[in-house]
Design goal:
Elements (H helix, E strand, L loop, with lengths): L12 H11 L2 H6 L7 H4 L11 H16 L8 E5 L5 E3 L2 E2 L3 E5 L4 E5 L8 E2 L3 E2 L9 E3 L10 E17 L5 E13 L12 E4 L1 E10 L11 E9 L9 E3 L1 H11 L5 E5 L2 H8 L11 H7 L3 E3 L1 H14 L15
């Protein structure tokens, strides 16, 4: 909408508030609307694919406004994720359950994102998740589970993972950027768990090739080499993982300009649904709830001792050096 100039003598406060809102900085824009979802944003509320559940939006918006008011956020956009929705809709179609909301520009976008895969400690306990829906959630170290709650995006770390062969038969360095999250409450150990956001890509089948001229070569002139795998339709180790294209856009939005991320559900929501409360008092995506039965939250005080004992009983084999690539 284009703005019309308003004479300074106009004293209609409601009109003045609208003009100030539309011409203000993102910070004041958010601060002027502490309550009530704007009509344009309300149009995106719902439980269909690409829509956002009302409780998720309300909490994500409240978190953002709180951080803006405290001066912790100047970013005009904020994020939300609904981990109760399916990540994989079948036939190669991914569920859109990660939301990018920019109220200043009246922009709303829903994209795909992975959920924590959890683990199956065979013979001890199984808290793993399937590709489509997450049943298990938690905040324990080494659990690889998603923990709901309030987060802030923080520093970006770009690391070299190795080389891979492109379609043009060229060796390309794979550099993946990771956005660290800081959490609050049950998610307060996000940094210790190395929870953040990144592209859903990894190198598999790693081996070493001779390339002494590479800046990434080790003291023997070797570089790691592997096959680039996109797992946007799969699970993560507890992080939010995005398609490469979406990841590039999101990282650019928050690099050096932090914002908020609210992930649903929290343990209280899981307890409400697992306790059989009605849909009016506890939200869960109906399709996933049918698949998983009752969800479960694994608190760190319960799960961490189990994981620690399992590690003690099943020590990992010593790390082995990467093999030399065939034909090198």
């Amino acid at each position: 909408m284009r703005l019309r100039s308003v004479p300074l003598g106009v004293a209609i406060l409601s009109l003045l508030a609208i003009v100030v809102t539309l011409t203000a900085s993102p910070r004041s824009f958010a601060a002027l609307q502490p309550s009530g979802i704007p009509a344009w944003l309300q149009a995106h509320v719902g439980e269909g694919d690409g829509q956002i559940a009302e409780v998720v939006l309300e909490r994500a918006r409240a978190l953002y406004l709180k951080k803006v008011a405290a001066g912790a956020v100047n970013n005009p956009c904020y994020f939300a994720m609904d981990a109760t929705r399916p990540g994989d809709l079948g036939n190669g179609v991914l569920g859109r359950r990660y939301y990018i909301i920019c109220e200043a520009s009246q922009s709303f976008r829903a994209i795909s994102s992975g959920h924590g895969g959890g683990r199956n400690l065979k013979g001890t306990v199984d808290f793993s998740n399937g590709r489509r829906c997450a049943r298990n959630f938690g905040n324990a170290m080494d659990s690889e589970l998603t923990a709901g709650g309030a987060y802030m995006t923080r520093e970006a770390k770009t690391s070299f993972k190795g080389f891979y062969r492109t379609g043009a038969k060229r060796d390309t360095a794979f550099l993946r950027t990771f956005i660290q999250f800081d959490g609050e409450g049950e998610a307060a150990n996000a940094r210790q768990r190395v929870i953040g956001g990144h592209a859903a890509q990894v190198l598999r089948g790693m081996c070493l090739r001779k390339n002494p001229d590479s800046s990434y070569a080790d003291h023997d002139g070797m570089v790691p080499f592997g096959k680039l795998v996109d797992y946007a339709g799969g699970r993560s180790n507890g992080c939010t993982s995005w398609s490469p294209t979406d990841a590039a856009q999101l990282i650019a939005m928050v690099k050096g300009n932090p914002t908020t991320l609210y992930i649903y559900p929290e343990s209280r929501d899981i307890a409400a649904v697992a306790g059989g409360r009605s849909a009016s008092s506890a939200y869960w995506n109906a399709s996933c709830l049918k698949d998983i039965g009752r969800p479960k939250f694994w608190p760190r005080k319960t799960l961490e001792p189990i994981i620690a004992q399992y590690k003690k009983d099943h020590p990992a084999p010593p790390p082995q050096p990467l093999p030399i690539c065939k034909g090198s």
